[in-house]
Amino acid sequence: MYQYKDRVSYSRIDTEGKIKVHAVVNVLQDCCLFHSEDVGRSCMELKEDAHAWLVNSWHIVFRRRPSMGEEFLVKTWPYKFKGVFGMRNFLMESMDGEALVYADSQWFYFDQGTGKPIKAKPEDVEPFGMGEPYPMEYTSRKLTYPEELEYRGTVRVCENHLDTNAHMNNGEYIRIAANFLPSGFSVGDLQVEYRLAAKLGEQIRVNTKQTEEGFYVVMTDTDGSPYAITRFRGI
Predict the structure, then answer these.
(1) What share of the chain in percent tops pLDDT 90?
(2) pLDDT tens-digit profile of 8-34?
(3) What is the dihedral of CA 160, 163, 168, 169, to 10 degrees?
(4) CA–CA distance from 141 to each of 56, 152, 188, 212 (Å)?
(5) Residue 69: its pLDDT value, please?
(6) 60, 189 in Cβ contact below 8 A?
(7) CA–CA separation, 31 vs 99, rounded Å?
(8) Whether the Cβ atoms of residue 143 and residue 195 lie closer than 8 Å to each other
(9) Which of 81, 89, 100, 147 has a 20 to 30 Å separation from 73 between CA atoms?
(10) Secondary structure element (H or E) that encloses residue 92, with its range
(11) Residue 23 and residue 10: Cα distance in Å, rounded?
(12) In this structure, what are the phi and psi dihedrals at residue 171, rounded to the nearest 5 degrees?
């Protein structure tokens, strides 16, 4: 297990003084990348070899979002590697051990030269170690979404959305999606499935629908193919 200590900063809080939903996702992503740095598998070194770990899906459960100035621990560990995929858990805890947020995620190893997933070699995964799956509900990583979505607007991918892979960073999709939640919506559970990588200059169409299963935000290209599907459930 890998962990580090963080603190809620003003730049990451909402009007209630709590860390924003998309900022939590960024915290989890940072923890994963710090893990990679500290075991000698830096994302920048992988980039030199035209390789990368890309996230395919998230399932994040919010028990309590910490508030301004609050310190917390962030933990992560892989619990399974199979073929091109790696499965990884995350846990945010208060300093006295309260589980604040926990998550499951699926990643795939990617060859940027060929543009295709590849099976990771032992030296690509062994430095991370292995842990047991966190005791949470494990659901399908494939998300279906309702028909007759409501078109809510278009977002153009700009430089500030991109990461080292020259794609829109996974946290940016969630930041955009959260902007379309109904006023006062308190997120208790978030699932995300990524299907296409949005690149610089592309137009993302944002579509939403509220159902009994949750609030859907589906981001597509101009032809209607999804970049990312998100489903928010309330507390």
Answers:
(1) 93
(2) 999 999 999 999 999 999 999 999 999
(3) -110
(4) 8, 25, 18, 19
(5) 98
(6) yes
(7) 16
(8) no
(9) 81
(10) strand 85-94
(11) 11
(12) -70, -25
Torsion angle, CA of 92/183/153/218, rounded to 10 degrees?
50
Q: Residue 97, class by beta-carbon neighbours within 10 Å (0-12 exposed, 13-18 middle, 19+ buried)?
A: exposed
Residue 88 banded pLDDT, cuts 50, 70, 90: very high
**Amino acid letter, residue 36:** S
Q: Side chain identity at 120, as an amino acid letter?
A: A
Which amino acid is residue 156, in one-letter code? R
Q: What tokens appear for 3 in the block?
A: 């962990």
- What mean pLDDT do residues 76-99 have? 97
- The dihedral built from the CA positions of residue 123, 129, 130 and 136, taken in this order, carries a sign that is negative
Please give the Cα distance from 14 to 11 (Å, whole number): 9
- Distance between CA atoms of 115 and 51, rounded to whole angstroms? 10
Q: Which structure tokens are listed for 181?
A: 């939640």
Q: Which of 100, 25, 29 is nearest to 70 (CA)?
A: 100
**What would the two tokens of residue 26 be?**
């960024």
Question: What is the distance between the alpha carbons of residues 165 and 197, in angstroms, rounded to a whole number?
Answer: 10
Token output for 165: 């892979």
Give the whole-angstrom CA distance, residue 150 versus residue 169.
Answer: 24
